[in-house]
Design brief:
- There is one protein chain.
- The strands form two sheets. The chain has a two-stranded antiparallel sheet with strand order 1-2. It has a two-stranded antiparallel ribbon with strand order 3-4.
- The chain is mostly helical.
- The termini are far apart.
- It is built from 14 helices and four strands.
- The radius of gyration is 20 Å and the shape is globular.
- Helices cover 64% and strands 4% of the residues.
Length: 429
């Protein structure tokens, strides 16, 4: 049987399912309905939101390849989550490091709950959508140049070896949860893991031809903006759903999510306007995504003023990191996964400690925990997850490279991957 264990203090809290003696629990239909809707919204973020956002940013000859990658990662992650991923993340903890195999194939994951208000199957499906979008985020690091077979192998292994353990540490009753780390909806678990892994993969894969000076601009900024709009809407389920209840905490999480996204977009556009004389649509919606990623870990702990600060910080810092990664470090993280998602998630994870202050409209610190104490825990956990993600991703990439190779043929890369990889064209011109 299960019991719902609540972690996290402040505006919101996250309920996790762990082993406990059998006892009755009453399902709340309102909470259940909201999490079912939130599950659909988070899936909507990947399909079609992320797929369209990324597809608009590549060349016309590779638009279908990016959409196909997102679709197949979603399918593979779904099956792996049911078979073993959910159990590794939320099964009975083995020393606080990984979940056991007691929930393989959703064994015992049914319509009942114990000391919770939603059925465990609803919780498992909600978490499945997080497991889908996290490896899909990494697609932005390697478009137009990585073999489809290598993408599928890397994504499957990465889900089980990077994402599932970190999810257990933070959300599944693992050792980081015991330390008191705060990550409301995935600054560490989703954005930090995907962002730093994307950077490692982009570095090892190598840049696109003519990087960085002669790359073609996005083939369809309107498609990118459409995908970003879908991501923005879906993010209300991502952050608001992480409350696991239809209550004021969910409402506040949605409110601060929206404020941060809007503020980051304005900030990004103003910087472009000053530096380049014109604000771009792609820049504005990239700012939206930066604001969404950065507020994610803090969305259950800060208030509207904190969201305003987080959004402004995301707009500035993520903007300058985009140029730093490409121009200074010469790493072709093509669609800026690290600079937007990785840096945003890490930034929000650190900022939530001071911005949770009651004086700023936040929920305050946990009893007996000072702001500096919380900041120290946040920083330590972020550092460990960065090292883990980089090290394990490196091994996965090397093994994948040895088995399948990573890079497509130069001729295919030059013409675009739609026809050579999938036998279809996005456009008949």
């Amino acid at each position: 049987m299960l019991r719902a264990r609540t972690i996290g203090l402040g505006i919101g809290a996250l309920t996790l399912f762990t082993a406990a003696p059998a006892m009755a629990a009453e399902i709340n239909s309102g909470d259940t309905a909201w999490i079912i809707v939130a599950t659909a919204l988070v899936l909507f973020m990947t399909l079609p939101g992320l797929a369209l956002f990324y597809a608009g940013l590549v060349r016309a000859g590779s638009v279908l390849s990016v959409i196909m990658q997102c679709v197949m990662i979603a399918c593979i992650a779904s099956v792996l989550w049911m078979v073993v991923g959910y159990s590794l993340a939320f099964g009975d903890s083995v020393g606080g490091w990984i979940g056991g195999l007691d929930k393989m194939f959703f064994e015992g994951v049914g319509t009942d709950s114990v000391n919770g208000t939603i059925p465990e199957i609803v919780f498992a499906m909600f978490q499945m959508t997080f497991a889908i979008i996290t490896p899909a985020l990494i697609v932005g690091a390697y478009p137009e140049r990585m073999k489809f077979s290598a993408i599928l192998v890397f994504s499957a292994a990465w889900l089980l070896l990077v994402y599932a353990p970190v999810a257990h540490w933070v959300w599944g009753g693992g050792w980081m949860a015991a330390m008191g780390v705060r990550d409301f909806a995935g600054g560490i678990v989703v954005h930090a893991t995907a962002g730093v892994s994307a950077l490692m993969l982009a570095k090892m894969l190598g840049p696109r031809k003519d990087f960085p000076n002669h790359l073609r601009p996005p083939h369809n900024p309107g498609m990118t903006a459409t995908g970003a709009a879908m991501l923005w809407v879906g993010w209300f389920g991502f952050n608001g759903g992480s409350q696991l209840a239809a209550d004021g905490g969910a409402g506040m999480a949605i409110a601060v999510t929206h404020i941060s996204a809007a503020t980051a977009a304005i900030t990004w556009s103003v910087i472009e306007w000053v530096k380049f004389g014109k604000p771009s649509l792609v820049g504005a919606v990239t700012g939206v995504i930066a604001g969404l990623a950065t507020i994610t870990p803090a969305s259950g702990f800060v208030g509207p003023i904190g969201a305003l600060i987080i959004g402004a910080a995301a707009g500035v810092i993520c903007f300058y990191l985009v140029g730093l990664v490409k121009n200074r470090f010469k790493i072709d993280d093509s669609l800026d996964v690290f600079a937007v998602h990785g840096v945003g998630g890490i930034l929000g994870t650190l900022l939530l400690a001071p911005l949770a202050a009651v004086s700023l409209g936040g929920g305050g610190q946990a009893d007996g925990v000072s702001m500096m104490d919380q900041l120290g825990v946040q920083a330590l956990c972020v550092a460990i997850v960065i090292v883990w993600s980089l090290a394990v991703s490196y091994v996965i990439i090397k093994v994948t490279q040895g088995l399948f190779g990573l890079r497509v043929d130069p001729e295919d890369e030059n013409t675009g991957l739609d026809l050579p990889s999938h036998g279809e064209r996005g456009y008949e011109l």
